[in-house]
Structures are given as C-alpha cells and as structure tokens.
Amino acid sequence: MKATEGTTYRMLQSNLGRITTKLEDLRIQGATGTKVNQPSDDPSSIRPVLTTRTQIMHTDRYLETMGVTLDKMEATDGHLNHVENILQRVKEISVNSINGAMSQNDLDTFADEIANLKAELVDAANAQVDGKFIFAGYAENTIPFVENPNYNPNPPVDPLNLNPPYDAADSTTWPYLYMGTPNPTELEITPGERLQANLTGNDLFFGINNTTMLAGGPSPPAVYASDSGRIDIFSVLTRTEEALRAGNIDDPLGAGGGLVQNLENVDIAADQNRRLRSQLGNRARRVDSAMLHQTDVQIDLQQVLSRYLDADAIETFNAIVQQETAFQAALSITSKVSQISILDYF
After folding, report:
1. pTM of the predicted model over 0.90
2. Pfam families from the entry (predicted)?
3. Given pLDDT bands bounded at 50, 70 and 90, which one contains residue 192?
C-alpha cells in the first residue's frame, strides 16, 4: 500500500498528539499527587471512590458529633463533682452541729453557709454549655430549676389547702420546681447503636426517673415523689438550713425535720449524685471508645481511597522522564521526515 506524504504527516501529528496528551496527564498526576483526576482516567474506580468518600463523610460526622458530646459530658462531670463537694460540706456542717455544743449564733452561721451552698447547688443545676442548659432535657433554652413561689416551710393550717406544707411525696410543695423535660438526649455512636448522652434534672436533682415523669404528662405538672431510695437534693439543703436556724437537732416534726433526720438524707443525696455520675462516666468511656473505633475506620477508608487515587511519586517521575524522552524522539523524527522532498531524488 502506497503511503502519501499527507498520510505520513497525519500519522506523525497523531503520534505527537498522543504523546503530548500522555505527558500532560503525567504532569498533572505529579502536580496533584493523584492518578484519577477525571472519570475518564479510570472509569472502573469511580464507583468505589465515590462510595468510600461518602463513608468518610459519615465517619467525619460521627467523630464531630461525638467530640462535641464528649466535651459536654466532661463539663457535666465537672458540675457533678461540684455537687459532690457541696454535699460533703453539708454533711460536715450537720455532723458538727449535732455532735458539738453549739450556740444558736454558731448554728445561724452554719445556716448562712448552707444558704450559700444551696445557691451554688442551684447554679450547678442551671449550668450551661455553649448557651444550652445541660440538665433541662429537650428544653435546652429554658432554665430548668426555679424557686417555688408557694413553698412555705411552716405554713398556717389552710382549710382551703391552697398552700399546703412541705411534703416529700408531693413535688409541688418542694422548694424548687423543675421547668425542663424528662427527655434525655440520645447519641448515635455507630449505625444502629445509640446511648443516653446527658442527665436530666428531674433524675439527678429530684430523684424522679424519666419514665415516671413522662407518664405524668404535660403541664400543669403532676404530683411526683422521689423514687424509693432517692430524694430531692434541694429539699435536703433547704430543710437543713431551716433546722439550723430553728436549733432543731432531732425533732422530726419540728422546723426542717431535724438535723439528725436530714443527715441521713444528705447521704442519700450524695449516693444519688455518685450513682448518676458513675453512669455518665461509663457512657463517656463508651463514646471515647467509639471515637477511637471511628478513627480507625476512617484511617482504613483513607487507605482504600489512596489505593484508587494516589499516584506513586517515583513511578510518576520516571514515567514523565520516559514520556519526555519519547516526545523528544518523536519531534526529531518528525523534523527529519519534514525535510524529505521528492526533489532530493532528481
């Protein structure tokens, strides 16, 4: 078959174009560090690359959410530690008041300290993280604990029962009211696995579990009592202060119910706080473990993505050198062919 001069030139042009395109692709790979910069580079890798990237995005979301939650858990633990210290000091004051020969002035001084400790307890119960109340359940923008305007430790006998006296079995008579919800926040740590990420104020400070309070329905609030073996911590401090101011050491029917009786309640309150703090700590450890697992998963996914996308630097450099050599050779051949003329044979 006879090759014309035009055919020869078209073949040389095509060869130069192919080499130039390949060299450009290699240079892009060297500059970006990836061997797949567009779908046509490796069509078979597009689906696994997109799938892996989606999985990495999900892992990033899990890690970000768990990181924020773990920070809140650590902040919550700090407040629970403060509550523990408050109750420890209340116990020390109660023991000293019961066992020591205290004057009423001394008891009043202790009562003032209890009042300050109660204010600290309220601050801890109404604590915020990132502008959200951490013990308010779903009502994160609502202050969870407010003073009960109808609380009266020593009310007169009211025939209409409009302002009943303090009753441990009636939460509407307690010194503080809970304005939050009994709905704990749940966190998804892996697909299909969720855990409680916070503590509700009713459970921690009132000793009323979430199931009981949810069964009570919406406002107006139902009448609740603390669960068996649990107690309203605010009442413990409030009534201890009342007993101190009245000098009531051991009369359960007197003001504040007596220091001796309240001392037992302080122990119940401390145990209640420690138990829920322990539960929160266990959940925090589970979140931390899940974060480590998700981090390992993310590393594995990055390795999978790397096998599809990342270009080997040495191989790419060698390929560029080889392709440049081929390009120079093609240019040399093309220049020599272009110098050939039929006139050279006459």
Report:
1. no
2. Flagellin_N
3. confident
pLDDT of 1 > 60? The answer is no
How many Å apart are CA 172 and CA 70, to the nearest integer?
Answer: 34
Note the maximum CA span of the chain. 137
CB 199 within 8 A of CB 276: yes
Residues in the chain: 346
* Beta-bridge partner residues of 128: 133
Alpha carbon dihedral 268, 270, 274, 276, in 10-degree steps, equals 60
Q: How many CB atoms lie within 10 A of CB 22?
A: 15
Which tokens is 315 given?
A: 């191989």
Whether residue 79 is found in the same domain as residue 187: yes
Same domain, 199 and 339: no
Q: Are 194 and 333 part of one and the same domain?
A: no
**pLDDT, tens digit, 9 for 90 and up, residues 13-28:** 666 666 666 656 656 6
Clarify whether residues 281 and 328 are in a common domain: no
Residue 181 and residue 206 in contact, taking contact as beta carbons nearer than 8 Å: no
Cα four-point dihedral sign 19, 24, 30, 32: negative
In this structure, the answer to whether residues 66 and 117 fall within a common structural domain is yes
State how far the Cα of 302 lies from the Cα of 314, in Å rounded to an integer.
Answer: 21
Check residue 310 and give its pLDDT: 58
Q: What domain range is 325 assigned to?
A: 320-345
